[in-house]
Amino acid sequence: MDLGLKGKVVVITGAAGLKGSIGETILQHLAAEGAIPAVIDRNDRGFAYIEEIQKQGIDGLFCKTDVTNPVQIEEAIAKIIAKYGRIDALINNVGVNDGAGLDASYEEFMDSL
After folding, report:
1. What is the H or E stretch that residue 81 is in?
2. Residue 15 · residue 37 · CB < 8 Å
3. Looking at the domain assignment, is residue 1 inside a domain?
4. Which helix (H) or strand (E) holds 91?
5. If you count Cβ atoms within 10 Å of the first and of the last residue's Cβ in the chain, which end, N or C, has fewer?
6. What domain range includes position 18?
7. Could you tell me which residue, 30 or 112, shows the higher pLDDT?
8. Is residue 2 part of a domain?
9. Is residue 3 part of a domain?
């Protein structure tokens, strides 16, 4: 299937989870479409996933980043733009589990968003 993503720089948050996770699967499909995946995640598996696609001749970048840290987010985006000059698409796949469950107060719930 041609999604028109060849050569497009696509930022994916949360794509360094376990093999077969939603984010990792998105990463693999984007790479297969010829996109340039730029992964933002705090998990070191991202290095191996990008290395794996690079062995297939596909460009990509991993930025080890804690998405709850605004400074790290700015640094990751700057690194992506410095390397590719642009960002064509964003996939916000990251999941933050901060423990705000059903018994959370309104303030705790809003802080978790």
Report:
1. helix 70-84
2. yes
3. no
4. strand 89-92
5. N
6. 9-112
7. 30
8. no
9. no
What does the DSSP assignment read for 17-68? SSTTSHHHHHHHHHHHTT-EEEEEESSTHHHHHHHHHHTTT---EEEE--TT
Q: Residue 31: CB partners within 8 Å, gap ≥ 6?
A: 37, 53, 56, 58, 60
**Number of compact structural domains in the chain:** 1
Please answer whether residues 72 and 30 qualify as being in contact, where contact means their C-beta atoms are separated by less than 8 angstroms: no
Picking from 95, 93, 61, 91, the residue whose alpha carbon sits closest to that of residue 78 is 61
How do residues 34-49 score in pLDDT, each as one tens digit?
Answer: 999 999 999 999 999 9
Q: How far apart are CA 67 and CA 13, in angstroms?
A: 8
Tell me the pLDDT tens digit for each residue of 95-111. Answer: 766 666 677 777 776 66
The CATH number linked to 30 is: 3.40.50.720
Q: How far apart are the first and last CA of the chain?
A: 34
> Which is nearest to 14 in space by CA: 23, 5, 6?
23
